[in-house]
Amino acid sequence: MGNLRRAQLTDYRSKAAGWFTVAAGATLLAAGETWQVVERHGWPAWLFWLLFVVTLALTVLNTAIRMIDVGRPRLAVEGEPAPAADRG
């Protein structure tokens, strides 16, 4: 592997680790806010866990759908040139 590729991989890993840290912090903030809502309304603790798991599942599903969508080829909109990969 060339030095340029190694540098790109190192840069990518660094950014990915940073964004993972941001996501983990946001998850903790969301859990705290959800707990406050449950306490404020006097709801049972099991409802907190249900809300937390459902919210976490929805965010993972949203990310998965977006990643699948990124991998799909785009159709050219009328009047716009086709992407370079589609030109033959």
If you had to describe this structure to a student in words, what would you say it looks like?
The chain has helices spanning 3-41, 45-71. With 88 residues, the chain is mostly helical. Helix content is 75%, strand content 0%. α1 (3-41) runs antiparallel to α2 (45-71). It has a domain at 24-71. The model has no long low-confidence stretch (mean pLDDT 86).
Tally the helices: 2
Largest sheet, described in full? none
What is the number of strand segments? 0
Mean pLDDT: 86
Low confidence ranges: none
Task: Please specify the SSE layout and strand pairing.
Elements: H1 3-41, H2 45-71
Entry keywords:
75% helix; 88 residues; mainly alpha; flat; 2 helices
Nutshell version of this structure?
This protein has two helices and no strands. The chain has 88 residues and is mostly helical. The two termini are 31 Å apart.
